[in-house]
Design a protein that fits this description.
The complex is a heterodimer of chains A (about 140) and B (about 325). Chain A is α/β, with parallel strands linked by helices. Helix content of chain A is about 20%, strand content about 20%. Classes of the chains: A alpha/beta (about 140), B alpha/beta (about 325).
Chain lengths: ~140, ~325
């Protein structure tokens, strides 16, 4: 059974699409034929780094063939590409249900090129040292 | 003696101070007949993501070696996809994807846990170059710097290798210029120092991040003193914090346009104000005293447990 995943803010088909795949709170896994769904917590949500990789691995274990999110980080993109999962961009102002309807109509754009190097990496990335003042990141580096 | 220069906040003047101290020590006795004495100071630029002490010292690089981390290599013919390596990796650098264990090399810290846990011996280690180490001399100072390649995310292995590679000779003073912040790169830099100078500025931002840095040094049990840069406005909260913590204020560098201009042109504190050389040497001398006092106190602690407020160097002022 091939399923489609949507990155969402709460464990519900009517939850809004999350802006960032790796940091999404939940992933809803949907059978597009029957619209049966289940929600799983995103293991990458609180990871210091490599969040998107963990989430991608989880989707690979659940026979997911396509995923919708507002955006995908460089590691997530690479991991999903290797896992053979198609990435689609979904507007965070719509719900998972709405995103699936658009996807079925061919109304979502597929992401094929990885984000530019040096792009924002949420939580992971630059060693955790904060230049200038501000949020004291405390992740291990 | 090993003295690290750190801060919580970025841009407080760590490199300005570290370079200033180094050139002041280098010029010691230079105007006396016969020139200076002792080995030149060794400055380690541990801010490997943006090493800029070279801007001021203009060193001639004499030696250079690669810096690398060891990363796992998965031999798929022996891999059973058990996932033990993925499970043990604290940095999520490994994942089972598309029916294979894949490595995300940029996330790997080279800890070797995956190699250890693999039940079938399917993982061996290989080395990946992430930067380089350089040693040279400029302005009478020996400079060793680590340079992390652009796009690499892990400064710590480069800092560790730099400290191991560029060791001070007998009687040579070593000054370590730390990266900003209070996370692993800063910790790796200050670890093993005899004393840490925390450079701060008299602002709420400066104080906020100074307090974080002080907490880290307490955890590491390292003695520390304060240098206030861009001093002028009386920021009483900061003065009170230093007094409460028993942190000696070693030196105050005024907030002055001439200094900013001189440094923007690639000059040192001593280039702008030659009289600072003596002042900076005096700062180093008082650190030497504090360190000597601390080791003397440590050896007598067992005999008489004496309470000192945050170290024996309290109440000292450099200017």
């Amino acid at each position: 059974m091939d399923r489609v995943a949507v990155a969402v803010s709460s464990p519900d088909l009517d939850a809004f699409v999350e802006a960032h795949f790796g940091r999404a709170a939940y992933l809803v896994l949907v059978d597009p034929q029957s619209m049966e769904w289940e929600a799983v917590e995103n293991p990458g949500r609180r990871a210091g780094g490599g969040a998107g990789i963990q989430a991608a691995q989880l989707l690979g274990q659940h026979q997911v063939v396509a995923v919708v999110s507002g955006d995908f980080g460089p590691n997530a993109h690479e991991a999903l590409r290797i896992a053979g999962i198609a990435m689609y961009r979904g507007d965070p102002s719509i719900t998972a249900r709405g995103a699936l309807e658009r996807l079925a109509r061919g109304g979502l754009s597929r992401i094929r090129t990885p984000p530019a190097e040096g792009g924002i990496r949420h939580g992971g990335g630059r060693g955790g040292g904060h230049r200038g003042t501000g949020g004291g990141g405390s992740q291990r580096s | 003696m090993r003295v690290a220069v750190a801060s919580g906040k970025g841009g407080t003047g760590k490199t300005t101070l570290a370079v200033g101290l180094a050139v002041s020590l280098a010029s010691e006795g230079a105007d006396e007949p016969g020139g200076g004495h002792g080995p030149p100071p060794l400055l380690l630029d541990c801010d490997v993501e943006a090493p800029d002490a070279r801007v001021f010292l203009r060193p001639e690089i004499e030696r250079s070696v690669a810096a690398s981390v060891s990363v796992p290599e998965v031999h798929h013919d022996r891999c059973t996809l058990c996932g033990d390596c993925v499970e043990v990796c604290a940095y999520h650098a490994l994942a089972v994807l598309g029916g294979q264990v894949r490595l995300f090399a940029e996330l790997c810290h080279g800890c070797g846990s995956c190699t250890l846990v693999c039940p079938t011996g399917a993982i061996t280690e290989t080395s990946r170059e992430v930067g380089c180490l350089e040693l040279g001399s400029g302005a009478g100072v020996q400079l060793a710097q680590g340079i992390l390649n652009i796009g690499e995310a892990m400064p710590v292995p480069v800092i560790r290798q730099l400290k191991d590679w560029a060791r001070p000779g007998p009687g040579q003073v070593m000054i370590l210029d730390a990266p900003p912040g209070t996370s692993c790169p800063m910790v790796e830099t200050v670890r093993g120092s005899d004393f840490v100078i925390l450079v701060t500025e008299p602002t709420p931002f400066g104080l906020h991040d100074l307090a974080l840095a002080v907490d880290v040094l307490k955890e590491l049990k390292l003695p520390a003193g304060i240098v206030v840069n861009r001093d002028g406005s009386a920021y009483l909260e900061m003065e009170r914090f230093c007094a409460d913590q028993g942190l000696p204020i070693l030196l105050r560098i005024p907030f002055e346009r001439a200094i900013a201009e001189g440094i923007a042109k690639g000059g040192t504190l001593v280039d702008v104000h030659p009289e600072y050389a003596a002042l900076l040497r005096q700062t180093m001398a008082s650190i030497t005293e504090i360190v000597a006092g601390a080791s003397a106190a440590a050896s007598s602690t067992a005999a008489a447990s004496r309470q000192t407020a945050g170290g024996p160097g309290h109440d000292w002022r450099g200017s």
